[in-house]
Amino acid sequence: MEVIKVRRSIRKFSKEAISEENLDKLVRAGMQAPTATNQQANCFYIVRKRENLDILGDKLQNARMLKDANAAIVVLINKNKLNKPTMKSQDAASATTNILLEATYLGIGSCWCGIYPNVERMDIIREVLKLEEDFIPFSIIALGYPENENQFYFIDRYDEAKVFRD
């Protein structure tokens, strides 16, 4: 529960590189997410090349922090694996959330940048990363160690007025 309490969107990153081992842990966390009828249609594209991070940061207004990020993970949906197409967004959102939580656990800052269903954003991701049309870009997660050490802290957002009981 502690990881959930202190997870924050981090947009300023240090220059410290993220290890391949930790990137693997992040992708593995995404793969552990539940999916409708166990369709497992999520795929993950790890972006490490500085050039790609900079281009994406320039072209995606909602993802400017990619220019400072050390890496990013694009959560993709493989159209060919969809047994329950109407559930694809929920499945990909669950995978994205798992990655954010694992990043916090590892001390890595992260920021979820929405891509789907914005066609312009999806096309930018496809163009820059040269993705086949079979893959739907759902989200891109900017990653890096926080520029400031005390970035993970708790804000109590509990609001009894938003809880209904039978």
Protein described:
- With 166 residues, the protein is an alpha+beta fold.
- The protein has a single domain, classed as NADH Oxidase (3-Layer(aba) Sandwich).
- Helix content is 34%, strand content 18%.
- The chain has helices at residues 2-6, 20-31, 50-59, 88-105, 119-129; strands at 42-47, 71-78, 109-114, 135-144.
- The chain starts with a helix and ends in a 22-residue tail after the last strand.
Helical residues, percent: 25-40%
| CATH-level-2 architecture | 3-Layer(aba) Sandwich
Largest pleated sheet: 4 strands, antiparallel
- Provide the number of structural domains: 1
Q: CATH-wise, what's the superfamily?
A: NADH Oxidase
Would you report the number of β strands?
Answer: 4
> In percent, how much strand structure appears in the residues?
15-25%
Q: Per the principal axes of the C-alpha atoms, what is the gross shape? A: globular
Radius of gyration: 16 Å
What value does the average pLDDT take? 97
* Assembly annotation: single chain
